[in-house]
Each structure stands twice: as structure tokens, then as C-alpha cells.
UniProtKB/TrEMBL annotation:
It comes from the Archaea. InterPro entries: P-loop_NTPase. SUPFAM superfamilies: P-loop containing nucleoside triphosphate hydrolases. It comes from Halorientalis persicus. Residues 222-259 are annotated as: Disordered. Gene3D superfamilies: P-loop containing nucleotide triphosphate hydrolases (3.40.50.300). This is Uncharacterized protein.
Amino acid sequence: MSHALIAAKSGWGKSWFAQWWTEDNLPNYDHVVILDRRDEFRGLVKAGFATWGIVSNAEAGLSPADWREFIRSNPRVVLARHHLDGDAWKGVAAAIIRAALSMDDDVLLVIDEAHKVAPQSGSYPDAMEDLATEGRGQVASLWVTQRLAKLDETPISEMMVYILGGFKSDNDLRKIAGNVGYNADVHKVSEDRVPGLSKELRADDAGEVPVRKFTQDGRTVGSEWIYSDDSGQQKRINSKRKSMESEHYGPESLPLTVP
């Protein structure tokens, strides 16, 4: 099992890529639980790949044992936040993580807007740190964020897989540089070129350039990412070459497609 981080600045196609990654991995796990803070994974439900769960004040009081039984009854579920403040949502995430860590089956946890449940500043439940540092038995996790600098350093440093797109913030870029074994300037979209970029990370059509976003008629139709993992593998991924069966919906409920 492994823990992976998908991160990029707003508008890079992060949530589309996270949904594609999740859909592609569904067959590999007995249970998949998606903590959908911004209501962006509903396409998996509409396509019949997952059931739908609303998390409101009533569900916020469920114990880890309650959530364990819920997960067993709903093996692939998208959990949408409904009128819960930040602390309540952290509590729900912690209880679900505890439930997953107590199960014997393989579980994939997808944590959208991960910086909201494990922020760099302020406290958060120990369960988030336990997931990142200890949950490598039966539990895998996918952490998704557009605010890398606001995600606590512990989960970032414990990731076994990084899938990172473009950034503008120097704070975000510094976090990347401290955790990956390649030239982090490849993520700096304000640059024109990245001298000395390794062959694996160069663009096929443009060479030593930072990752790029592709638009058509004012909408994003694809973007580039850098994949790296603990084994030392590194590569550039172009999401224009990926496709999924489920339709992706943004937070405004408008369908977003990648040709």
C-alpha cells in the first residue's frame, strides 16, 4: 500500500486528474472512501462506480466503529460535506481514518482539499498523522490539494508517490523542493525554460520547459504533471492523453471534459 499526493495550483485540472486516478484504481481495493469537501467527485456516483453519502451534523457524531460498519455496507462511497464547519469536517475525517485503519480489508482513502484536514498552521487530529506515518498496511491514501504550502509537512514528507502540476507561489515551490529529488523549477509556470532538466522530465515536443496547461476556447483541456516515487521513478504525464468513463463536474456543477 502507498500514500500519494496530487497537488497543483487552482485551475490546473487537479480535481479531474484526481478523479481519473481514483476511477482507475477502484478495482484494486475492497473499499474506497472519498472525502469530497467541495463536491467534485459526484461523477463517480452518476456513472455508477460509487454510492453517495451526505455528511451533516448528524453524521458528524458517528464513532469510528459506526463508520467501519458504514464502509462495509457501502464499499465504494463519495462522502459530501453538508453545512459542516472546518473542525467538524476534521473530526469526521479522523473518525473515518480510524475506521479504515481498524479494518482487515484493503481500503483506499481519497482526501480532497487535504490542507483543510491537516493544515500547516493550527491543530488537527492525530489520525491524519497516523494515516501518513503508520497506515501502510491495508490502507492507502490519496491526498489532493491546491494549497501545498498550507498542508502540514508531516503528510507531505511521508508520501511515497508525488504527482505535481504547476505552481506560482514561492511557498508552494519551496515545499516541493524540500521533498522531491529533481529540479523543482519544472513546476514553476512563470519560467520559460528549466536548464539541466533530466531527460525523463523534458517535454517530448519542447524539451526543457516547465509543466504546461493546455486550453481550448477558454477552458482547460489538459495539463502536464511530474510523477515521482520512492523507487526513484520520474516521468512527465500529459492528462490530455488520459480518459475516464465517468464525467467530471466542477464545484459549480458544470461538466468538465478532457478530449
